[in-house]
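Coenzyme A biosynthesis bifunctional protein CoaBC, Fictibacillus phosphorivorans. Tokens?
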Amino acid sequence: EQTAPLKGKKVLVTAGPTREELDPVRYFTNHSSGKMGYAIAAAAKELGADVTLVTGPTSISIPSGIAVAKVTSAKEMYDATLSRFSEQDVVIKCAAVADYTPTIVHHNKFKKKNDTWTIELKKTDDILQALGERKEHQVLIGFAAETENLEDYAKDKLIRKNLDMVVGNDVSKEGSGFGSDTNEIMMIKKDGSVKTLPILSKEKAAREIFEEVMELMNR
Ligand code: PMT
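Tokens:
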């Protein structure tokens, strides 16, 4: 069917930031609003797919007709994504997952005392890496948010994480990346082809991503 090319296909999208708790009143997070990931989920729905959105805390309302798993931490996002992976046809990892989390989570509010407070962080498990290692039939898409050497760093993520495509995002550019309604993206496929797009609304960028995803699915 022309209007529903993804009918019968299962698409999982991750979106938004994660929150890493330090104590009952404090956490580490980032500037992801969820707009890009939610636009991707909505685009997949429009194309007829059966969509699951794994989302960190955002203030956007969930598009209708989409299954949602709400998570808070990187660990929760890891579990929610990995447990659903085997049944998916396409997974797009747009979430801005914390790379580090506090080694100690205080049960009570940490009291103000000394002039300095040193916090130790440890690496979180890389969700995309774990998916890449377990990939069978799935088309796996990652994002790369960079402030320099975008194409090189994005290509490195594509190969290292065993992706079919990486969407590079120069997050230092005005109107691109975190929080904005627009995004300037570059798509690099595993065959080495590079497609650079002008600044677009996140909805339009999401549709462009699916043009490439559908091509990858038909291979
Ligand atoms: O939410 P918005 O405000 O609309 O902003 C959109 C966005 C800037 C968040 C989005 O376009 C974007 O670039 N998302 C990826 C952000 C990011 O964390 O990039 P990264 O280069 O640090 O990570 C690379 C990839 O690894 C990402 O697909 C990320 O989901 C994944 N990752 C990272 C760490 C981790 N522990 N597990 C992961 O899976």
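The mean pLDDT is 96.
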